[in-house]
Amino acid sequence: MAPHPDTWMRVTPLGLYCEPGDFYVDPARPVSRAVISHGHADHARPGHDSVLATPETLAIMGARYGAERSGREQRALRYSASLTHREVRITLVPAGHVLGSAQVMLEWRGSRIVVSGDYKRAPDPTCAPFEPVPCDVFVTEATFALPVFRHPPAEHEVARLLNSVSLFPERAHVVGAYALGKSQRLIALLRRADYEKPIYLHGALRNLCDLYGRLGIELGRLEPVPTGLKRGHPPILAGEIVIAPPSAEATPWARRLADPVTCAASGWMTVRQRARLRGVELPLVVSDHADWDELLATCAEVQAPEVWVTHGRDDALVHALSLRGVRGRALHLVGRDEDDDAVEGAPAPGGETAAAPEEALAGVGGHAHVAEEGPAPPRGGFDVAEAA
Q: Residue 276: which residues within 8 A CB-CB, separation 6 or more?
């Protein structure tokens, strides 16, 4: 009889730990051996000894942290290939969240668990679509796990943005979007909507947009927001689209723009009160996470009799699953954020550069009560055996 995943997967203060394989999935602090689902800062921490991830995620970590901090030993595993490490078979399956994002499928002695990381089900021209995998236990996020969150097609929201640009040609439209995933998706969606003009970028976004281009994601002509303007220079970029980190609109950086229309692209824009509190004039409901219906549909597709919930609205999702005969369990992992914006860094006042990822990570998890230290960090890299 195959062992239940709860006999070989364990929640520790460092994160979800695979005992027979002696490694962590998306650990909250540096460890010796880590499998990383994707490049967002609350999943991909710097400083691990050995990192296993998709080639794209490794490239993103390198661009954000530098080669010396993104894993002293790096092992790339392409989608649908498998690596067997200490009898644990590891397979990375597309998660549809951002470029390179993966679900981590682990198999040991006939038992299978799938750790989804963050995921979405809506189509995205910048990353591979989510692939449901039948399993014994499915580990899901719950960022938007309330019935109020039912996201419209992203194309609809992009059409609203372009309509506003047409209605207010004397104003710049500044769209707040985090640096990894959302910015590139918005740009690609604008191109699919036949928007061929240059798109202007805050300096904090340029590095990852250039990386997407090098990895084969065509984003068209991108221009920096002009700098070095003298005092009294007329406002600039009327009628243009500018993409910036979400907090940039509230800094002196935005004052050079022509009467900017403040926009924000986020699943949280479903809640109009959030938009009002942030001073968002044009809220765009564009999310890189599954909404309520998609979460329930995904849990049904993977046919798992048990679902573990990592963060977000876990109580609502656990209750809804129980009504469908599925056992739910809230994991309460330390260091997971419900909003990617909160961990992607913010521009310095008046500046062009996002805060370093390590600054955004400082102290993450330090506020939580730790009941045990957990296992000692594993030593050594991942085994080299790989099968298609």
A: none
